[in-house]
Specification:
Pfam families: CN_hydrolase (PF00795), NAD_synthase (PF02540). InterPro entries: C-N_Hydrolase (IPR003010), C-N_Hydrolase_sf (IPR036526), Gln-dep_NAD_synthase (IPR014445), NAD/GMP_synthase (IPR022310), NAD_synthase (IPR003694), Rossmann-like_a/b/a_fold (IPR014729). It is an enzyme of class 6 (ligase). It comes from Mesembrinibis cayennensis. The chain is α/β, with parallel strands linked by helices. The chain has 3 domains: 4-302, Carbon-nitrogen hydrolase (Nitrilase/N-carbamoyl-D-aminoacid amidohydrolase); 328-446 and 489-582, Rossmann fold, CATH 3.40.50.620; 592-693. It is built from 24 helices and 20 strands. Strand 1 (4-12), helix 1 and strand 2 (40-42) form a beta-alpha-beta unit. Helix 11 crosses helix 13, helix 15 (448-462) crosses helix 16 (475-503) and helix 22 (612-622) packs across helix 23 (629-646).
Length: 694
């Protein structure tokens, strides 16, 4: 009797609407799975078209091309003798569903639509899909002719059913269903399903991976069983990085772990597991067995196939392993670096340009690019032919083999220190030293001539010359003069990005990198259309606190000693005149709050859903040892004034790597007005009344 079933799951770097590339990666994953003896292969959510198609799901072309790819998979000899489970959108009775299509030997066994749709944060699945609300119900799905010609089937089962092979029973979940309070695996497990599958499109957030792992392991800890999770990986066309972490769990313990961050486009996990271990584990859980005796059964699709072999007594099975989690600093080093690599190779640009100020934020961005170069060299060393082919296209050299991250940096990374009369020699030296240590092509330039020309035009037209406040000017004049410097830097950044390689006799252009962190964006502590305006921003979803820890990580792991002086210097915009040759302006003094306070405000505003009054109520308890209620009230009011005055800047925020759940990204994650009544009169009066009562 067969008892050792061999299954495979994968993490694929799919790209929205890249049907050709997506098909090739699916085929590669199936080939790898079969070569390792797998009898069942699971892929990520919507892997055929790519998860991030967004409003392209409305287009009939997306459905058509998905079926064309499915036909290629069905008719290929490569998919024979293995149950293949792929994801794609399907239109059933004029309703669009997010589906799994499960097939074997040119026959579709089941189309299983998603039951619980993800519709919070970055997810908008209810915009494009409808959940399947008919529990344990199956209907006939009439196949399009392109599929009928391959399978010989006119209709196939469509709905909430499970597969019964000759040796076990499998049931599917799709991404969000694992996170739902009434996950299908609970009832399926009680009904005798032994293998649960989950195809995900789950993106990276700092410190999130352990939650996903815990959910998978707990799914089988209480109920017994085998849980197989597949996930997308990489940047498939927007702000998110899908972070892999494919895994296989059995009876509450992980038996196979995939990488969270990798430049491998295709990663396959295969495990051989003893099905009798599931049965013996369940046998002694009396509460489970009592509940199982009353469960409403699922429709079963009978499959004349086994996941095990008849003579498998001597086949070795997988044993539990300890999951290794990355530290937040490692996540920052790896996640944004992989995202940048995908963006660079898929945009077909020749590298990056970064305005490097010598401060923490731009230095952290530079370190992420350096980490990317490190990952590229490591992948090539480990035999990754895809990465080698991509890097050769980027540097326009068919014989190039990257071995040293610093040498690769020199080819694809340009840093630029844009000095003004308000810049200190200290920041200039810090930027130059860091550029030397990471190997970037570094440019020093001075913007004073351009600033004077712009202000000169204004003076010529108006007859008035604005002055900094230290020279007797008003706040309006002071801010305008700072903004002119900041905006000129953006213009110069794009000019140098377009033409720097031309001056070096090299083809192509550079992507401009921004370096505003999540806290500055939330507070609006940036000039609209300054150097925060760029093509992409790898740190836009990361807090100042985490960036400081990341800088320390880079000192220790990359031996970038130049970062020590950057770490110890107070953050400054260097837009106001120096005093005795030294910087007098600091970020926290300008903002009227510390970066640590900003992180707290951000988490309360977004994650805790706190308006001004609720934030005040929470903070008088949190800060009772350091602030009086009146001081807390003053801080909360100042934050909400500044946040609301500057919210309009979020509408033009550079697309940023999503890493924090309190991101103020206005595109789809944090939907708010950008024209507020900034007096918050009613809300602030409620705070004042509470202060007086206290």
């Amino acid at each position: 009797m067969g008892r050792a079933g061999t299954v495979a799951t994968c993490a694929l770097n799919q790209w929205a609407l890249d049907f050709e590339g997506n098909l090739e990666r699916i085929f590669r994953s199936i080939d790898i799975a079969k070569s390792r003896g797998a009898r069942y292969r699971l892929g990520p959510e919507l892997e055929i078209c790519g998860y991030g198609c967004s409003d392209h799901y409305y287009e009939s072309d997306t459905l058509l091309h998905s079926f064309q790819v499915l036909a290629k998979l069905l008719e290929s000899p490569a998919t024979q003798d293995t149950i293949c489970d792929v994801g794609m959108p399907v239109l059933h009775r004029n309703v669009r569903y997010n589906c799994r299509v499960i097939f074997l030997n040119k026959k579709i066994l089941l189309i299983r639509p998603k039951i619980s749709l993800a519709n919070a944060g970055n997810y908008r699945e209810l915009r494009w899909f409808t959940p399947w609300n008919k529990a344990r119900h199956v209907e006939e799905y009439f196949l399009p002719r392109i599929i009928q010609e391959v399978t010989g089937q006119e209709t196939v089962p469509f709905g909430d059913a499970v597969l019964a092979t000759k040796d076990t029973c499998l049931g599917a979940e799709i991404c969000e269903e694992l996170w739902a309070p009434n996950s299908p695996h609970i009832e399926m497990g009680l009904d005798g399903v032994e293998i649960f599958t989950n195809s995900s499109g789950s993106h990276h957030v700092l410190r999130k991976a352990h939650t996903r792992v815990d959910l998978v392991n707990s799914a089988t800890a209480k109920n017994g069983g085998i849980y197989i999770l597949a996930n997308q990986k990489g940047c498939d066309g927007d702000r998110l990085y899908y972070d892999g972490c494919a895994m296989i769990s059995m009876n509450g313990e992980t038996v196979a772990q995939g990488s969270q961050f990798s430049l491998d486009d295709v990663e396959v996990l295969v495990a051989t597991l003893d099905l009798e271990d599931v049965r013996s584990y369940r046998a002694e859980i009396s509460s489970r067995n009592l509940a199982a005796s009353k469960v409403n059964p699922y429709p079963r699709v009978k499959v004349n196939f086994t996941l095990s072999c008849s003579d498998d007594v001597a086949v070795p099975t997988c044993m539990p392993i300890q999951w290794r989690h990355h530290s937040p600093e490692e996540e920052i080093s790896l996640g944004p670096a992989c995202w940048l690599w995908d963006y660079l190779r898929r945009s077909k640009q020749a590298g990056f340009l970064l305005p490097l100020s010598g401060g923490i934020d731009s230095s952290a961005t530079a370190c992420i690019v350096y980490s990317m170069c490190h990952q590229v060299c490591l992948a090539v060393k480990n035999g990754n032919g895809d990465v080698l082919a991509d890097v050769r296209k980027i540097v326009n050299d068919e014989t190039y083999v990257p071995e040293d991250p610093r040498e690769l940096c020199k080819r694809i990374f340009t840093t630029c220190y844009m000095a003004s009369e308000n810049s200190s020699q200290d920041t200039c030296n810090r930027a130059k030293l860091l550029a030397e240590q990471i190997g970037s092509y570094h440019i020093n330039l001075n913007i004073d001539a351009a600033v004077k020309a712009i202000v000169g035009i204004f003076s010529m037209v108006t007859g008035r010359t604005p002055r900094f406040s230290v020279y007797g000017g008003s706040n309006r004049e002071n801010l305008a003069l700072q903004n002119v410097q900041a905006r000129i830097r953006m213009v110069l950044a794009y000019l140098f990005a377009q033409l720097t390689l031309w001056t070096r006799g090299m083809p192509g252009g550079l992507l401009v990198l921004g370096s505003a962190n999540v806290d500055e964006s939330l507070r609006g502590y940036l000039t609209k259309y300054d150097c925060s305006s760029a093509d992409i921003n790898p740190i836009g979803g990361i807090s100042k606190t985490d960036l400081k820890n990341f800088i320390q990580y880079c000192i220790e792991n990359f031996q970038l000693t130049a970062l020590r002086s950057i770490m110890s210097a107070p953050p400054t915009a260097e837009l106001e005149p120096l005093v005795d040759g030294h910087v007098a302006q600091t970020d926290e003094a300008d903002m009227g709050m510390t970066y640590a306070e900003l992180s707290i405000y951000g988490k309360l505003r977004k994650i805790a859903k706190a308006g001004p009054y609720s934030m005040f109520c929470k903070l008088i308890s949190m800060w009772k040892e350091i602030c009086t209620p009146r001081e807390v009230a003053s801080k909360v009011k100042h934050f909400f004034r500044m946040y609301s005055v500057n919210r309009h800047k979020m509408t033009t925020l550079t697309p940023s790597y999503h890493a924090e759940n309190y991101s103020p990204d206005d595109n789809r994650f944090d939907l708010r007005p950008f024209l507020y009544n900034t007096t918050w009169s009613w809300q602030f009066r409620c705070i004042d009344q509470q202060v007086n009562a206290l």
